[in-house]
Write a structure and sequence with these properties.
The structure is a homodimer.
Chain A: H1 3-8, H2 10-19, H3 24-35, E1 39-43, H4 47-63, E2 66-69, H5 72-76, E3 87-93, H6 99-110, E4 114-119, H7 125-129, E5 132-135, H8 148-164, H9 169-176, H10 178-186, H11 189-198, E6 204-209, H12 214-226, E7 231-236, H13 237-241, E8 253-257, H14 261-277, E9 281-286, H15 289-292, E10 296-299, H16 310-327
Parallel strand pairs in A: 1-2, 1-3, 3-4, 4-5, 6-7, 6-8, 8-9, 9-10
Helix pairs in contact in A: 2-8, 2-10, 3-8, 4-8, 4-12, 8-16, 10-16, 11-16, 12-16
């Protein structure tokens, strides 16, 4: 199966996961109820680390949990033994085979922490070391660049948040509406291809997001790097203002993801300044026509709950990266240098 | 005072801080001994966030503490109330005036957490809301690009780690040796200027580090962005292998910081591959002649303890960024667009 097929498959994959939430979630929630972990530790790399970043916001906002992104190298390089006994330790990995991610979950288990593996490979080393396993059930992902496992990981994180604190009817409906919104987002493909063709010479860019959409900005930048060989720099819009804003000039391409709500409100002034005052070229993914019309834009579906939006807003980002790759004469199904399973230690 | 003077002042500033450790550290350590916080939460942006990243490794390795980098936007945009009561909440800010950082410390205080401000401005809003204040005493920092406050923050983090768990004689000596090692690192200025002149046309680059030196890679990239307007992409060497490695080709400049020990061992194979197999141009900051001679390099002082090295290894990075800025015809004392105090919310 080619990358573009896996991109297009995402509404069906998300629908499947939502239709039969992994039973491990209920068991984990019961254990969390008993043990009341003080902190959630998320260990991941690459695309999965961007899903972890989304979860960091979601668990803080929806579950009032304190969330730490693990620094696996502290353990694997320096033998750190951070106190994990009172934590919930979650390893996220498509392949379940990154030794440093396995090492964090293993250390949690050794200390008696609650542990969870979120993976597309139920028979992997990561799944073997964790107390509970959430299988994504995304089907084989053949393309080197992860797409459907990323959005599955986001949906799995939302289901975990629901398992820990029961959703309102409104929240439940918002998550159930994601597959259809994904299908709407995929319908932008022709617009994505056209904008990508116009930017075929783009060798570098800045990618901005804020709040929940910072994860999307990072994941979009990663796809641009690994597929289109574009030097894409992702920032939270707030961090960008602390220095890197000096990069802005009329030669700069700025891509931004600002669907609606606070992630839009918190960025729109900066985007106007970047284009109006500093002359940067913008491409804005947004449900707001006003934001899209600052310069150029791609429409995101309206009425997606802000906390559920990252699983939708990355899709035009993936499509843009895919078509930019082709416009640059590269093969999206054979990105150079990298392999599907990266075994960092 | 110009930027170059502030860069050169760093050994004296670090020496001053080491000679009279802030009394707040002892009081905080006593409170930590009583309260035994489950997690350390670090809130910072920009350069200070890179100091927080260093602390995340140091506190995990040396103090076996679980450390979370705060996502201030979860609080300020979405009203999150993560459970902080059992945490030690530390805000790090040169100016003490970033509202979102103040908001995280304020929320910690409201919930009854132990709180600490680390700042160069004892009269700032951040200092006002925290239980204890570590003043950096770096003197006024006039340049927009932070340098001496960054290394002061690193030294302050090491002193805090010492206050929480008493150092061995060897560790004490290693930290005391930092100012002299900084002076040795500053002596590379002519070499930095020469290598910068040769790379005056460099518009983009990848900056790599690993472990403790990932913070250095990020801070070096930030100086290159805000001063030299170079599109600098920082990665932990492990994350780089998970996808962005596709960027590597003979047109790519790779800067790496790999002083010695594990941060060197964990990167040397990747650096050899990047230059030998993929043709990228390297500039390696290292105490190892072998690592420097893969392609080009700048010598870091030998015999600096790995956990103390980031306060030393950033100095040639700052000097390189400064001279590259001048080589590109830009003014390091007047970076465009950005201001010294950035009040993100």
């Amino acid at each position: 199966m080619a990358l573009i097929d896996e991109i297009r498959e995402q509404p069906a994959v998300a629908q499947r996961l939502l239709a039969s939430p992994p039973p491990a979630l209920g068991r984990l929630a019961a254990a969390v109820g008993r043990r009341r972990p003080s902190t959630v530790v998320l260990a991941a790399r690459g695309t999965s680390d961007n899903a972890a970043l989304y979860a960091q916001y979601l668990f803080a906002v929806r579950n009032s949990m304190l969330v730490a992104l693990a620094t696996p190298a502290a353990l694997t390089l320096y033998g750190a033994r951070p106190r994990l006994a009172d934590a919930l330790v979650i390893g996220i990995s498509q392949s379940g085979r990154s030794p440093d991610i396995v090492a964090v979950v293993e250390e949690g288990r050794r200390q008696g922490a609650l542990t969870l593996a979120v993976t597309n490979e139920g028979a992997s080393p990561l799944a073997a070391v964790a107390d509970e396993v959430v299988e994504l059930g995304a089907g084989d992902e053949h393309a080197t660049a992860a797409t459907k496992t990323y959005t599955s990981e986001l949906v799995a994180m939302a289901l975990l948040s629901f398992a820990l604190d029961a959703p309102t009817a409104e929240e439940r409906a918002a998550l159930a509406a994601v597959p259809e919104a994904m299908a709407t987002a995929l319908a932008t493909e022709a617009a994505c291809a056209e904008l990508a063709a116009r930017r075929a010479s783009m060798a570098r860019c800045v990618v901005l997001g804020r709040g929940y959409e910072y994860a999307t900005a990072r994941e979009w930048a990663l796809k641009l790097q690994e597929l289109a060989q574009v030097h894409a720099l992702a920032f939270s819009a707030a961090d960008f203002e602390h220095g890197p804003l000096a990069l802005a000039d009329p030669e700069l391409d700025v891509l931004a993801v600002a669907p609606s709500g606070r992630s839009l409100d918190a960025q729109v002034g900066l985007l106007q300044r970047l284009h109006g005052e500093l002359g940067a070229r913008l491409l804005v993914l947004s449900a707001s026509a006003e934001a899209r019309h600052i310069d150029a834009g791609i429409a995101l579906p309206a009425d997606v709950a802000e906390w559920a939006a990252p699983a939708v807003s990355i899709l035009p980002g993936q499509l843009f990266a895919y078509h930019l790759t082709r416009a640059r004469g590269l093969d999206p199904d054979a990105p150079r240098t990298i392999s599907k399973v990266t075994e960092t230690r």
